[in-house]
Amino acid sequence: MKQLSGFKKKYSLVSFIPMIVLFILPSLCSQAFSQELSPKFISKTQQNNLLKQHLEQKNLSKKGGGLNKPTAIRERVFTGHNAGDQLGSCVAKAGDVNGDGYDDLIVGAPFSSSTGKAYIYFGGKSMDYVADVIFTGEAANDLFGNTVTGAGDGYSDVLVSAIGHDTGGRVYVFFGRAGFAGSHPAQTADVILTSEAAMNSFGWAMVNIGDINSDSYDDVFVGAF
Q1: What is the pLDDT of residue 129?
Q2: Three-state SS at 220
Q3: In angstroms, how far is CA 31 from the centroid of its own chain?
Q4: Measured in whole angstroms, how far is the alpha carbon of residue 80 from the centre of its chain?
Protein backbone atom coordinates (compact mmCIF):
# COMPACT_ATOMS: atom_id res chain seq x y z
CA MET A 1 0.00 0.00 0.00
CA LYS A 2 1.63 3.21 -1.14
CA GLN A 3 1.70 5.96 1.47
CA LEU A 4 0.88 9.55 0.53
CA SER A 5 4.01 11.28 1.80
CA GLY A 6 3.46 14.45 3.80
CA PHE A 7 0.03 13.49 5.03
CA LYS A 8 -1.11 11.63 8.12
CA LYS A 9 -3.59 9.44 6.22
CA LYS A 10 -3.23 6.50 3.88
CA TYR A 11 -5.58 5.66 1.05
CA SER A 12 -5.70 2.89 -1.54
CA LEU A 13 -6.22 4.00 -5.15
CA VAL A 14 -7.42 1.13 -7.30
CA SER A 15 -9.17 1.63 -10.64
CA PHE A 16 -12.10 -0.62 -11.37
CA ILE A 17 -15.00 -0.97 -13.77
CA PRO A 18 -18.17 0.60 -12.33
CA MET A 19 -21.02 -1.87 -11.95
CA ILE A 20 -24.74 -1.54 -11.47
CA VAL A 21 -26.34 -3.93 -9.01
CA LEU A 22 -30.09 -4.46 -9.08
CA PHE A 23 -31.78 -5.48 -5.87
CA ILE A 24 -35.27 -6.93 -6.26
CA LEU A 25 -37.50 -6.93 -3.20
CA PRO A 26 -39.02 -10.39 -2.66
CA SER A 27 -42.47 -9.01 -1.82
CA LEU A 28 -42.63 -6.85 -4.95
CA CYS A 29 -41.29 -9.68 -7.08
CA SER A 30 -43.90 -12.12 -5.82
CA GLN A 31 -46.72 -9.63 -6.44
CA ALA A 32 -45.55 -8.93 -9.97
CA PHE A 33 -45.23 -12.68 -10.62
CA SER A 34 -48.75 -13.41 -9.45
CA GLN A 35 -50.14 -10.54 -11.53
CA GLU A 36 -48.39 -11.78 -14.67
CA LEU A 37 -49.76 -15.34 -14.32
CA SER A 38 -52.80 -15.93 -16.47
CA PRO A 39 -55.54 -18.20 -15.10
CA LYS A 40 -55.27 -20.42 -18.19
CA PHE A 41 -51.72 -21.44 -17.13
CA ILE A 42 -52.55 -22.44 -13.53
CA SER A 43 -55.19 -24.61 -11.97
CA LYS A 44 -58.04 -23.43 -9.77
CA THR A 45 -56.32 -25.01 -6.78
CA GLN A 46 -53.11 -23.09 -7.53
CA GLN A 47 -55.09 -19.86 -7.82
CA ASN A 48 -56.71 -20.48 -4.43
CA ASN A 49 -53.33 -21.27 -2.87
CA LEU A 50 -51.83 -18.05 -4.24
CA LEU A 51 -54.77 -16.05 -2.89
CA LYS A 52 -54.50 -17.75 0.50
CA GLN A 53 -50.74 -17.04 0.63
CA HIS A 54 -51.32 -13.38 -0.25
CA LEU A 55 -53.96 -12.98 2.49
CA GLU A 56 -51.73 -14.66 5.07
CA GLN A 57 -48.85 -12.31 4.24
CA LYS A 58 -51.20 -9.33 4.41
CA ASN A 59 -52.42 -10.37 7.86
CA LEU A 60 -48.84 -10.90 9.07
CA SER A 61 -47.88 -7.41 7.91
CA LYS A 62 -50.76 -5.91 9.91
CA LYS A 63 -49.54 -7.78 13.00
CA GLY A 64 -45.97 -6.56 12.55
CA GLY A 65 -44.44 -9.59 10.87
CA GLY A 66 -44.01 -11.26 7.50
CA LEU A 67 -42.35 -10.23 4.27
CA ASN A 68 -44.53 -7.15 3.84
CA LYS A 69 -43.49 -5.53 7.10
CA PRO A 70 -42.31 -1.95 6.43
CA THR A 71 -38.54 -1.65 6.91
CA ALA A 72 -38.17 2.12 6.88
CA ILE A 73 -40.12 5.21 7.84
CA ARG A 74 -39.34 8.61 6.36
CA GLU A 75 -37.89 10.87 9.05
CA ARG A 76 -36.13 13.69 7.19
CA VAL A 77 -36.34 15.24 3.73
CA PHE A 78 -33.36 17.18 2.36
CA THR A 79 -33.99 19.54 -0.56
CA GLY A 80 -31.57 21.22 -2.98
CA HIS A 81 -31.22 24.99 -2.94
CA ASN A 82 -32.00 25.44 -6.64
CA ALA A 83 -33.66 23.54 -9.46
CA GLY A 84 -31.17 21.34 -11.27
CA ASP A 85 -28.74 21.03 -8.33
CA GLN A 86 -29.30 17.26 -8.36
CA LEU A 87 -28.89 17.05 -4.61
CA GLY A 88 -28.74 13.38 -3.73
CA SER A 89 -26.89 12.24 -6.85
CA CYS A 90 -24.69 10.48 -4.32
CA VAL A 91 -25.48 9.88 -0.65
CA ALA A 92 -23.17 8.16 1.81
CA LYS A 93 -22.59 7.54 5.49
CA ALA A 94 -19.87 9.98 6.51
CA GLY A 95 -19.17 8.43 9.88
CA ASP A 96 -18.74 10.61 12.95
CA VAL A 97 -17.04 13.63 11.39
CA ASN A 98 -17.21 15.95 14.40
CA GLY A 99 -16.76 13.42 17.20
CA ASP A 100 -20.13 13.95 18.88
CA GLY A 101 -20.95 10.24 19.00
CA TYR A 102 -23.42 10.31 16.10
CA ASP A 103 -22.83 9.23 12.52
CA ASP A 104 -23.26 11.96 9.95
CA LEU A 105 -24.59 12.06 6.39
CA ILE A 106 -22.81 13.43 3.31
CA VAL A 107 -24.78 14.31 0.16
CA GLY A 108 -23.49 15.40 -3.24
CA ALA A 109 -25.03 18.01 -5.57
CA PRO A 110 -22.72 18.03 -8.64
CA PHE A 111 -24.66 20.68 -10.57
CA SER A 112 -25.05 23.19 -7.76
CA SER A 113 -23.63 26.68 -8.46
CA SER A 114 -21.91 25.48 -11.67
CA THR A 115 -18.97 23.99 -9.71
CA GLY A 116 -20.88 21.43 -7.68
CA LYS A 117 -21.24 21.12 -3.92
CA ALA A 118 -21.35 18.52 -1.14
CA TYR A 119 -23.15 18.84 2.16
CA ILE A 120 -22.69 17.20 5.57
CA TYR A 121 -25.67 16.90 7.88
CA PHE A 122 -24.72 16.08 11.45
CA GLY A 123 -26.58 13.16 12.99
CA GLY A 124 -28.18 13.27 16.42
CA LYS A 125 -31.47 13.20 18.28
CA SER A 126 -32.29 16.67 16.93
CA MET A 127 -31.01 16.18 13.36
CA ASP A 128 -32.43 18.91 11.13
CA TYR A 129 -32.62 19.76 7.42
CA VAL A 130 -29.89 22.42 7.41
CA ALA A 131 -26.41 21.47 6.19
CA ASP A 132 -23.76 21.82 8.91
CA VAL A 133 -20.78 21.69 6.53
CA ILE A 134 -20.73 22.84 2.88
CA PHE A 135 -17.96 22.01 0.42
CA THR A 136 -17.73 23.87 -2.91
CA GLY A 137 -15.89 22.88 -6.10
CA GLU A 138 -12.93 24.76 -7.56
CA ALA A 139 -14.16 25.65 -11.05
CA ALA A 140 -17.20 25.54 -13.32
CA ASN A 141 -18.16 22.13 -14.73
CA ASP A 142 -16.01 20.26 -12.17
CA LEU A 143 -19.02 18.15 -11.14
CA PHE A 144 -17.75 18.40 -7.58
CA GLY A 145 -19.89 16.13 -5.43
CA ASN A 146 -20.50 13.53 -8.12
CA THR A 147 -19.35 10.88 -5.64
CA VAL A 148 -18.94 11.11 -1.87
CA THR A 149 -17.92 8.72 0.89
CA GLY A 150 -16.56 8.61 4.41
CA ALA A 151 -13.45 6.95 5.85
CA GLY A 152 -13.49 6.50 9.61
CA ASP A 153 -10.50 6.43 11.96
CA GLY A 154 -11.57 8.24 15.10
CA TYR A 155 -12.83 11.46 13.60
CA SER A 156 -14.21 10.27 10.30
CA ASP A 157 -12.81 11.87 7.14
CA VAL A 158 -14.85 12.55 4.01
CA LEU A 159 -13.92 12.27 0.35
CA VAL A 160 -15.56 14.24 -2.46
CA SER A 161 -14.79 13.72 -6.14
CA ALA A 162 -14.83 16.21 -9.02
CA ILE A 163 -14.79 14.05 -12.13
CA GLY A 164 -15.06 17.04 -14.46
CA HIS A 165 -11.88 18.74 -13.26
CA ASP A 166 -9.66 19.64 -16.23
CA THR A 167 -6.85 17.44 -14.90
CA GLY A 168 -8.97 14.38 -15.56
CA GLY A 169 -10.66 14.36 -12.18
CA ARG A 170 -9.79 14.98 -8.58
CA VAL A 171 -10.67 13.58 -5.16
CA TYR A 172 -10.62 15.89 -2.14
CA VAL A 173 -10.08 14.52 1.35
CA PHE A 174 -11.25 16.58 4.32
CA PHE A 175 -10.12 15.41 7.75
CA GLY A 176 -12.78 15.24 10.43
CA ARG A 177 -12.27 17.13 13.67
CA ALA A 178 -14.06 18.61 16.66
CA GLY A 179 -15.97 21.74 15.81
CA PHE A 180 -16.02 20.96 12.09
CA ALA A 181 -18.59 23.30 10.51
CA GLY A 182 -19.12 26.07 7.99
CA SER A 183 -18.16 26.44 4.32
CA HIS A 184 -15.00 24.99 2.80
CA PRO A 185 -13.73 25.51 -0.77
CA ALA A 186 -12.36 22.37 -2.40
CA GLN A 187 -8.84 23.80 -2.58
CA THR A 188 -8.68 23.89 1.24
CA ALA A 189 -8.90 20.08 1.43
CA ASP A 190 -6.30 18.33 3.60
CA VAL A 191 -5.39 15.96 0.76
CA ILE A 192 -6.02 16.38 -2.98
CA LEU A 193 -5.66 13.34 -5.23
CA THR A 194 -5.35 14.05 -8.96
CA SER A 195 -5.93 11.89 -12.02
CA GLU A 196 -2.97 10.41 -13.88
CA ALA A 197 -4.25 11.69 -17.23
CA ALA A 198 -6.88 13.96 -18.77
CA MET A 199 -10.42 12.68 -19.40
CA ASN A 200 -10.07 9.82 -16.89
CA SER A 201 -13.13 10.83 -14.85
CA PHE A 202 -11.02 10.04 -11.79
CA GLY A 203 -13.31 9.67 -8.81
CA TRP A 204 -16.28 8.40 -10.81
CA ALA A 205 -16.78 5.82 -8.08
CA MET A 206 -15.39 5.58 -4.55
CA VAL A 207 -15.96 3.13 -1.74
CA ASN A 208 -14.63 2.76 1.79
CA ILE A 209 -13.23 -0.77 2.04
CA GLY A 210 -12.10 -0.60 5.66
CA ASP A 211 -8.60 -1.22 6.98
CA ILE A 212 -7.27 -3.84 4.54
CA ASN A 213 -3.59 -3.47 5.49
CA SER A 214 -4.01 -3.34 9.29
CA ASP A 215 -2.49 0.11 9.76
CA SER A 216 -5.49 1.39 11.78
CA TYR A 217 -6.63 3.65 8.93
CA ASP A 218 -9.53 3.03 6.57
CA ASP A 219 -8.65 2.54 2.91
CA VAL A 220 -10.68 3.46 -0.16
CA PHE A 221 -11.04 2.36 -3.75
CA VAL A 222 -11.23 5.15 -6.33
CA GLY A 223 -12.48 4.35 -9.82
CA ALA A 224 -11.51 6.01 -13.11
CA PHE A 225 -12.31 5.19 -16.72
Answers
A1: 85
A2: strand
A3: 29
A4: 16
